[in-house]
Design brief:
Elements: H1 20-31, E1 35-39, E2 44-51, E3 57-65, E4 70-77, E5 83-91, E6 96-105, E7 110-119, E8 125-134, E9 139-148, E10 155-165, E11 171-180, E12 185-194, H2 198-206, H3 211-224, H4 233-247
Parallel strand pairs: 1-3, 2-4, 3-5, 4-6, 5-7, 6-8, 7-9, 8-10, 9-11, 10-12
Helix pairs in contact: 2-3, 3-4
């Protein structure tokens, strides 16, 4: 995505579901900075983050992966105000990229992930799994674009978004985009939004579990998909606990 010269509006595709009032409060200086990370050939980097506070927050990252380099990024987004993580990844030959993200919370906040994954060379893989849980009038967004350049044959790319709305006023938006110029590729995306399985809740209640515990267990299982590829148990627990802590304020 290009650097910003002016504040974005909802006419900009990558900002169409953003909280523009919060963006204006941040100002151009608050959203223009990029964190750049270049991984050399064969290098591996894992990043785990809990983002969000009671103030608007925009984090923008550029990752460039050399041949055979591997990047893993796992994030819990639980901001009490507008919180956005924007990631732009360029993959070299045979480079794998793994992204697992959760947006969760209530109030009226918008929490979002925006990713652009560029398969620039052959044999690279990317997998993105996002889970969104919201209540009150909160919104969870995932805008994910995959670009496969002409000579990036044998690309294997996937995106999977699922949203869970605990109250009728909450919303979730998913915008998967594929731009493919190579002909020997495997690219897939899926997006669903729904509510808690009432039959499962009834089953758990019939066995003596409280409504609060039933909800927590069902949401925990739902969120777990986002971090299934995270092999560091301590980081896995940290990210999931941060998400479940936000759940304490949810209505049943």
């Amino acid at each position: 995505m290009p650097d910003l010269a002016t504040l974005p509006t909802r006419r900009d595709e990558a900002w169409r579901y953003a909280d523009i009032d919060a963006v204006e409060r941040l100002g151009l200086a608050g959203i223009a900075e990029w964190q750049d990370l270049v991984l050399a050939k064969g290098e591996t980097r894992r990043m785990c983050m809990v983002i969000g506070s009671d103030q608007p927050e925009v984090t923008r990252m550029r990752l460039t992966l050399g041949e055979g380099a591997r990047a893993e990024l796992f994030v819990t987004n639980k901001g009490g105000d507008y919180t956005r993580l924007e990631v732009e990844v360029t993959l070299g030959k045979g480079a794998p990229f793994e992204f697992g993200g959760v947006t969760i919370g209530g109030g009226d906040a918008t929490r979002e992930f925006v990713t652009t994954t560029v398969h620039a060379e052959p044999d690279a893989t990317s997998n993105q799994t996002v889970r969104s849980v919201h209540w009150d009038t909160a919104t969870g967004n995932f805008l994910g674009e995959i670009k496969v350049l002409r000579h990036a044959q044998k690309t294997d790319a996937a995106q999977d978004f699922k949203g869970l709305l605990l109250e009728a006023g909450a919303s979730a938006n998913a915008v998967p985009q594929l731009e493919i110029f190579a002909d020997d590729v495997k690219c897939a995306h899926g997006a669903t939004v729904g509510q808690l399985d009432e039959s499962a809740r009834y089953y758990m209640a019939a066995r003596g579990l409280s409504p609060e515990l039933s909800q927590r267990l069902l949401v925990q299982a739902f969120l777990g998909d986002a971090f299934v590829a995270l092999e560091d148990e301590a980081e896995h627990e940290k990210l999931l606990d941060a998400a479940l802590e936000a759940l304490e304020g949810a209505s049943l």
